[in-house]
Amino acid sequence: MKNEKGMTLIELLAVIVIIAIIALIAIPAIGNIINNSKDKAILSDTSQIIAGAKIAIADGACGGDSAINCDEKVLADYIEKADLETGATYLVTKSNSEYTVKYSGLTKLTAKGKYSGLAGNTGITSKDLADYMKNGKTSK
């Protein structure tokens, strides 16, 4: 027999089947990782908005006595806008010692995964945000 080099058709088919199985496992896992990263970025932006509002309130930029409101116009000098999505709207309200943020970016959270309880919401309190960032859910 000749000294033939190369792979047989059966060997090629086996390699293709193995690659297909690996792809079927890997593609959904990668998709979940990407969605979780986007969700974490949105929650991080929300946390950044609250942090900026705390500084603005301490500086007296938001005014008010009992309920203090800070919107994106007031917070523009306190938040790095390059990190937030273009055209995002947000409003931080401080009542007593509780901060509540209404952020349009929260509507982009995916309905699957760790942060599914927040999907579709437009507002969250600072305590609930901390719980979600730490545990993926609130302690309620």
Automatic annotation (TrEMBL):
InterPro entries cross-referenced by the UniProt entry: N_methyl_site, Pilin-like
Q: Which domain of life is it from?
A: Bacteria
Q: Which residues cross the membrane?
A: 12-34
**Subcellular compartments:** Cell surface
Q: Which UniProt keywords apply?
A: Competence, Membrane, Transmembrane, Transmembrane helix
* Protein's recorded name: Prepilin-type N-terminal cleavage/methylation domain-containing protein
Query: Which species is this record about?
Result: Viridibacillus soli
> Which Gene3D superfamilies does this UniProt record tie to the protein?
Glycoprotein, Type 4 Pilin
